[in-house]
Amino acid sequence: MFGFSYWFLPLFAGCVWLGTLLAMLGRWVVIGSPHYIGFDAGQRITFISDVGATSWGKPLFIAGSAVTVVVFDLAFVSERWLRHKGRLTKNYNRTEKILSVFATIFAVVGAAGLILLTIFDTNRFPNVHTSMLVVFIAGYIISAIFICAEYQRLGIHYREHRILALSFWIKLGFIFLEIALVIAFGVTQYYNKYNPAAIIEWIISLVYIFYVWSYIIDFLPATKTRSYEDRFPDPHPKVRAQDDEMAMNTQANGNMMGGPVYSSGGGQQDAGDTYLNYQPQGQTPSRNF
User: Fold this and answer.
1) What share of the chain is helix, strand, coil (3-state, %, to 5)?
2) Residue 289 resides in a domain
């Protein structure tokens, strides 16, 4: 894709978000860590939203957030396309495809929440800003849940591809860690502990970067499946089930007749060996057994 591998999408998105946060925090420190309009009397550490509401911070916050989530959402769409084309392990059934689609939808919802919260800053639109913050966090957590469900099912069918299990556990860890941090953020806000709340908010944003980067490993198999011959085969579970049923019927008929079973080539095969040696024409044995 434009001379780059697909893993570049989550890598670039995470780097943009990291650069945005470092630029905002660095500028606030360099100019003397000023107190902004929304600061509490005893507050010393700024929230990201406070920096993002300043005249110089808002354009940076909007641009950095928009680029991050748009590129990251492209990674979701690309993952679905690559899995459909066999560049990544193919889905076994419709349920896995539905889980992938819902993960993409909620990622888009989370992206919209982040872009809107940067536009509706905390100084002029505090209620809308807070609501969009909830949409942003909830959208990506729910998206991660659907991704985990899809990868858990894929890992069962493709046990030989350990990268699926690794990706599953990383994303599951993100879910639990982000939920714990969000709860801690809400509690500290409720009890007006603004300095710890600000620190937790920065941590939540940094953890989001590592979640974005976790998708790099998901795209690594696609670097080896550029040619059509190297791509993952279509599982066709219904076809396999029909073939297995046909083989079992052949074995059963041979046992009932008490004699040899003739193969399509005209030779004889022992009835007991027919099912064990049966292999549909044009099919390769399943790697799951």
Assistant:
1) 70, 0, 30
2) no
Look up residue 50 and give its two tokens: 């406070």
pLDDT in tens, 7-17: 999 999 999 99
* Residue range of the domain that includes 76: 8-230
pLDDT of residue 127: 93
**198 and 57 fall within a common domain:** yes
- CA atoms of 21 and 203, how far apart (whole Å): 11
Q: Say if CB 38 and CB 53 are below 8 A apart.
A: yes
Residues 30 and 79 in one domain: yes
Give the global pTM: 0.75
Q: Are residues 158 and 263 in the same domain?
A: no
Residue of 266 and 69 predicted with greater confidence = 69
C-beta of residue 101 within 8 angstroms of C-beta of residue 241: no
Contacts of 272 (CB under 8 A, 6+ apart): 251, 254, 255
Q: Is 184 helix (H, G, I), strand (E, B) or coil?
A: helix
Which CA distances in Å does 69 have to 7, 97, 172, 199?
15, 22, 20, 23
On whether both 256 and 189 belong to a single domain, the answer is no
Residue 283 lies inside a defined structural domain of this protein: no
- The set of residues, in sequence order, having a beta carbon less than 8 Å from that of 238 and lying 6+ positions away, is none
| 193 and 254 belong to one structural domain | no
**Same domain for 160 and 28:** yes
* Residue 238's pLDDT band (cuts 50, 70, 90): low
Look up residue 5 and give its two tokens: 């591998």
Token output for 220: 């690594």
Residue 3 within any structural domain of the chain: no
